[in-house]
Every structure is written in structure tokens, then in C-alpha cells.
Amino acid sequence: MMKWSKIRAIAFDLDGTLIDSVPDLAAATNATLVQRQYPPVTEALVLSWVGNGAQVLMQRALSYVSAMAEDDPELQLLLEQTMPQFMHHYGEHLQKHSRLYPGVLVTLQQLKQAGFKLAIVTNKPYRFTVPLLSAFGLDGLFCEVLGGDSLAKMKPDPMPLQHLLEQWQLDESQLLMIGDSKNDILAAKAANIMSIGLTYGYNYGEDIALSHPHAVCENFADIEQYLL
Ligand SMILES: O=C(O)COP(=O)(O)O
């Protein structure tokens, strides 16, 4: 039986949960596409491609503009050539237009104050995750930061969450995953831990409730009712 009162540590997703990062991801995607002589795409399209890390985002973007299938070997080759350009552009944009969602900073501070161990478990490459956290004054709050490339597998694989369980010597009932995407909820279920789904982020246009997290919240601060 899963119980909120057992939770001692919380893993947070980043994009679409703590930070609205799509404006900068879209700017970097478009700078890359234009550099490759493709037309730019809308922010709404980029939003629908976020969730499985930088490489898959660019793979979806290139497939869209070139009309090649995502698994076409020619697209794979193009992707390999294009990734360094995307990584450069995203490094340039990182926090230009991104913003923290309402209530994030205060709620995280209160949870830390209450004694919860906090971690970031994102599919964003690690090298962008750390500077983004510090740009928004969040860096001191987390004892562990795992990027999409920190371990051999990323969400929806449970590996990053299993890593935290092991690292922190926690029982499965003591770790909670909070995120906006089905990748977060699937990873939590595969790791046999509790999860909260947030409705305001990016989930490929799907209702997060369809992934059956243990609770659904409309605002970040609403998570407090289960924890404080
Ligand atoms: O970078 C992505 O594709 C998604 O990142 P997230 O796991 O923080 O939502």
C-alpha cells in the first residue's frame, strides 16, 4: 500500500514541470533548421516534440521538415551532422525566454526546509541542466541532478529513479516522482514508486491523468497538500 506519509525524497522533472523551456528550445530548433536551409517551425510543434531529450527533439524536427521517416538511415545521418549545431544554438539560448512556473521556487524551498531530499531527473542533457538551474536560483536545492545522458538510459526507463533509490538507500515507498509527462509517470511506475502528474506542462497534447499518476495537480504549489 502506497502512502504519502512515507515519502522522504522527491525527484522532479525539469522541462514543463519547473521551467517553461519551450521558447528557448524552439528558438534553438529554428536557428538549427534555418542553418540547414529548412524553414522554421511553430513553437506549438516544438512543444509537441519535447520529452525524450535533445536528440529525439531534433530527430522529430528534421523528420517533419524533410518528410523523411524518423527511422530512415538518411535522416539518422542528417541528425548526426545536425546535433552539434543544435547543441551550440541551445547553449546560446538556454534561459533567454524560459521562465519558472508560478510557485516553484517557494514550494521547493518549503519542501527542502521540511527535510525532503530533492533531485532533478530530466531527459535534458546534463550540460544544459546545471546552468539552467543556477540561472533560476534553483541549484542549491537539489542533492542530485541527473540529466538524460547521465546514465545509460533515460525516462521512461526507471534507471534514473532506481539510481536514486540505491544512492540514497531508500525503500521504493519513500521516493516520489513529480512531472508533467507520461515519461515521468511511466518511469515512476516501472520503478514501483509514487508519482504526481502536473497538467500545465508538455505531454504531447495528452491529458496526464490518462497515465494514472497517484495524484494530478493543476498548479505546482498544489503538491504541498500531499507532503506538508
Ligand atoms: O529535454 C526533454 O526532452 C525533456 O526534459 P524533461 O525530462 O525535463 O521534461
TrEMBL record:
InterPro entries: HAD-like_hydrolase_sf, HAD-like_sf, HAD-SF_hydro_IA, HAD_2, HAD_sf, PGP-like_dom2, PGPase_prok. It catalyses: 2-phosphoglycolate + H2O = glycolate + phosphate. Mg(2+) binds at D13, D15, D180. It is an enzyme of class 3 (hydrolase). The active site is at D13. Its cofactor is Mg(2+). Pfam families: HAD_2 (PF13419). One of its GO terms (molecular function) is metal ion binding. Pathway: Organic acid metabolism; glycolate biosynthesis; glycolate from 2-phosphoglycolate: step 1/1. The keyword Iron does not apply. Its EC number is 3.1.3.18. One of its GO terms (biological process) is DNA repair. GO terms for cellular component: cytosol. Keywords: Carbohydrate metabolism, Hydrolase, Magnesium, Metal-binding. Belongs to the HAD-like hydrolase superfamily. CbbY/CbbZ/Gph/YieH family. HAMAP family: GPH_hydrolase_bact. Specifically catalyzes the dephosphorylation of 2-phosphoglycolate. Is involved in the dissimilation of the intracellular 2-phosphoglycolate formed during the DNA repair of 3'-phosphoglycolate ends, a major class of DNA lesions induced by oxidative stress. This is Phosphoglycolate phosphatase. It comes from Shewanella livingstonensis.
